[in-house]
Amino acid sequence: MQPSILACRHQLIRGPRGFFRRDKSTIVSTASQIIIDKHELHSTWPIYSQPETRNIVQDGVTLTVQRGQTCYGPGDRMTVNATIKADNLNTILLRGFEFSLRESTVFRTGPGVGGKRGAPHVKVVVIAEQKVPVNATLYGGSQHKAELTCMVPSYHTSATINAARHIDITYVLSVKALMGTGLPITIDLPVAVSNWPK
Predict the structure, then answer these.
(1) Per-residue pLDDT band at 15 (split at 50, 70, 90)
(2) What is the CATH number that goes with domain 36-193?
(3) In what order do the strands lie in the sheet with 143-151?
(4) Inter-residue contact 95 to 178 (CB < 8 Å)
(5) Which of 5, 43, 116, 173 could form a disulfide with 73 if both were Cys (CB 3.0 to 4.6 A apart)?
(6) Residue 171 · residue 111 · CB < 8 Å
């Protein structure tokens, strides 16, 4: 393309014919798809490998979750350590843990669309999950630890998108402790998912 542009400039400067010349130039155009990958979401970047600890207290029970990574790619193993501790003297029953990766997709319509059709459409899908039965009785001050693991499917290709105009894709690691009282204790950990495997 560049040589033809230079040739046109040369003819316009050189000849007095200017824009009104009789011969027609041949214009050739082509289209090609450009793929822009989000390398800033690569799971091996050091910024995504900083340890983090979160906890929540509910009904005299503390759930603590520790993780060492915040970004995962296809085929990656997601691992967290969960600890349930009985804070008071009452006996509690820990039935088990549930660990899942959820994908939330939000579609927004363009301007000018009103009513129900203009409202954002939200779709939530469980990408991976693990259920760990425990059935342990915890007395005051005692605790139970478990390592929870699940895999991002190797065929998973949707990446985290949070700055697009019409679509957002976000991911959450959910750690749920199932208690004998029937009320689970849940901690949601936001994570980024890349389309780049390690």
Answers:
(1) very low
(2) 2.60.40.640
(3) 52-58, 61-67, 77-86, 143-151
(4) yes
(5) 43
(6) no
CB atoms under 10 Å from CB of 151, counted, come to 16
Cα–Cα distance measured from residue 32 to residue 142, given in angstroms and rounded to the nearest whole number: 63
- What does the alpha-carbon distance between residue 52 and residue 192 come to, in Å, rounded to a whole number? 15
DSSP reduced 3-state for 190: strand
Radius of gyration of the chain (CA): 28
Q: What is the separation of C-alpha 93 from the centre of its chain, rounded to a whole number of angstroms?
A: 33
Give me the pLDDT at residue 87, please.
87
Residue 150 in tokens: 């699940």
Average pLDDT (63-76) is: 94
Q: Report d(CA 170, CA 43) in Å as an integer.
A: 15
Q: Provide the token pair at 143.
A: 């605790």
Confidence of residue 21 (pLDDT cuts 50, 70, 90): low
**Residue 124 contacts by C-beta under 8 Å, 6 or more apart in sequence?**
102, 103, 104, 105
CB 68 within 8 A of CB 49: yes
> Quick one: CA torsion of 182, 149, 169, 196, rounded to 10 degrees?
180
Residue 25 has pLDDT above 90, yes or no: no
pTM: 0.74
All structural domains of the chain with their residue ranges: 36-193
At 140 the pLDDT is: 83
Amino acid at 57: V
User: What pLDDT does 13 receive?
Assistant: 44
